[in-house]
Give the backbone structure.
Amino acid sequence: MRAGIFKIAIPPLAVVLSLCISALLIMAAGKNPLFIYQKMFTMTLGSEYGTGQIVFRATSLVFAGLAVAIPFKLKLFNIGGEGQMLAGAFSAALAGTLLPPQTHPVLAVFFCTLSAITAGASVALLSGWLKVSFGVNEVISTIMLNFIVQACAGFLLTGNLSVPSTAHTYEIVPSAQIPQFDTVFGIWQKSPANFSTLFALAACFGLWFLVFKTIPGYEMRAAGLHPEAARYAGIDTNFHILKAMGIGGAMAGLAAANLVLGYKHYYESGLTDGIGFMGIAVALLAFAHPVWIIGSAMLFGFLQYGGLSVNAYVPKDIFLMVQAVTILMILILTKFLHRN
Amino acid sequence: MNRSVLSVSGLSKKFGTFWANRNISLEIENGSIHAIVGENGAGKSTLTRMLYGLLSPTSGFISARGKSVRFSSPRQAIAEGIGMVHQHFMLVPELTVTENIMLGDERSHLFAPLKKRGTAETIRKIADTHALSIDPDALVSDLSVGEEQRVEILKLLYRNADILILDEPTAVLTPLETEKLFATLKSLQKEGKTVILITHKLDEAISVSDRVSVMRRGELIATEPTPSVTKADLARLMVGRDVLLRVEHPEENIGRPVLEVSNLSMNDWKGVQRLNGLSFEIRAGEIYGIAGVEGNGQSELLASLWGIADRRSVIDGSVMLDGTSIKGLHADKIAAMGVSHIPEDRLKHAVVPDFTIAENLIFGRHREKKFARTGGFNIPAIREYTDTVISEYMIRHDDRDNQKLASLSGGNQQKVVLAREIRRPDLKLLLLAQPTRGVDIGAIEMIHRQIIETRDKGIAILLVSAELDELVSLSTRIGCLYKGSLRREFTAEEVRYGRSSEKDFKKEIGLSIT
């Protein structure tokens, strides 16, 4: 029981420790950390636009985090979130440009989202299939697929899908665009925060229910915790590996919906910008728990946008370091907890 | 002779708030074979680990030959002539016997060539004196378990240890090998060496030792000269109450054939034949015992009956359950037809230690309709079932809903598995592997009673066990498995007759399995 309380205390403790370390870094850069932190808060949580930015970034990170967390329930490391997300973004953008403009908005969004999910899940399932059929380590196959997907997308983009003399595709039809909170409710003005956030929340709670409350989820956890025993209990471990990878890839694809359908409205190279990799950290900070991921994604969203907002005073790379230090702290503290 | 070579006084070891050993005082006489018996968790291992320098005592003293000692590593214990053979051997399989024995005690200078030939000669000489037949040039990976144990003993003798601690040495041995080991121990004793034998098998303690100490819950309850105690005395001291060592064996009421196996053969993925034309049937209400030394096809037989054999292996022949073929079906389908399997390694194969008690009580039975509700589990039904099982099997726990199985004691974890499998609805056939391995003598009684009760409910039971005692006292019929085929089958009459002259009967079974 005491170990449980300590476990919950790890993430906040890690964050506080890494903020302290970054304060030292800011001082080393010749600035007053308190001033920087204060600026950071007023420009993010203190402003509507800033809050919206955090929500928008956190939404992508929630999906990217789930893409790692669900396979992790089976002790699989999905490092391919980036590639799966890219595949999702590209196919969502493509579907959005191909749809007839008069398609009903609900249908249009549904089709584009579905194509993103399918693309993301297919890439992840390829790794899952390699794992169950040939025993290929999923870490290696997902990393390699990142490069392959990136190269394919680049090839298609420069081929004939981009707007001439740019590096992005044509804009998707207006009915396929996911409305932003600003245009509907007038909150978080001018920020890219859009209704995908609601999908993200639904995904977190839905997956929590699936993993912890349903029979397939029970089998999935058993297969992850103790595959040998699961085999004796007649549980098809391979099937669950495929399922978890499929769900993970689908979540990465959904991150693309937030970026493409909700914000950019086209695909451009560099769109995913490492968010897929950030998902690993998000999942880690939340101990791969689908609901805790919300909090962890908010924190990383805050650090990301906060870093940008004070870029004029200190290099934003300091906040990249904060993120990295936070993760290292969590790893150290978790090991420490296990040793005692 | 009566001078004490190792003495311990007021020795205690505390882990957190738990006393693993409490105020232990013990004298080991020079040149004696001293057995220490006790249930799992009684503190035998902790005591020996302190004697060997693997653990340092919280309080108390150890003295060797009248000299007070305090070891902080096994190396110091060896220097004092104390050596230990662990339950799990510490050998490097890629090296030869000689190289393993030399390891850590090479007796040559840095960068100088190893004196392998000379050492091999020395080893051969020691081995011959003590009937420890072994080829010093053989690779350890080619040795049998019994031979590996001999290497471990030779390792100690090579280091001139004169106090030998053996931790559960017979757990991995066949009856024949056990006899050989005891002969070696007697021969060592003749040479003036002292042997400390840790065991939970009372027969062995009685047959080989001069004195015997009993441990219970971290304390040393008694030390007696062996000739003055009986098995029942020791069992009572170990458990703290009277123990029924013989299981009541009421007349079987045998019904229709439930499991019919004919001509079952299995080749593993390398093409090696593991099972060779097995044919037997098990009827409702009888226990069919499989005797055999481990590795003669027991695990392959169970795996093919339970549908979890390696997908690459080839299985021939037929397996019929109540007239329906179950060959090639998956475990979940076989289970749904009324078959339960209690595997040998319960912790590894039958439970998920990180799951709660309730989650483990439905493990493998989670697809049953009564536990399901639209979209998820029927929590109230599972709670009710958990409560029933907990009170019926007296599973000791702190928190029904949140406690992980891993935090239950070993015996209670066993009960969870037993309860779950025996209570499977419409149970017809129970596959049971080593049901009392690693189980305390007090709990063995309970488990044996459960097995007989299950049998009397008209359930067919396949009992695979390495303990001949257990097979003889529980089985209706016994099949002897040797190199993948049934070498001999003892009929119900033969077994019944055999029970009346157990010793000869066990010897006869022993001949058919080696």
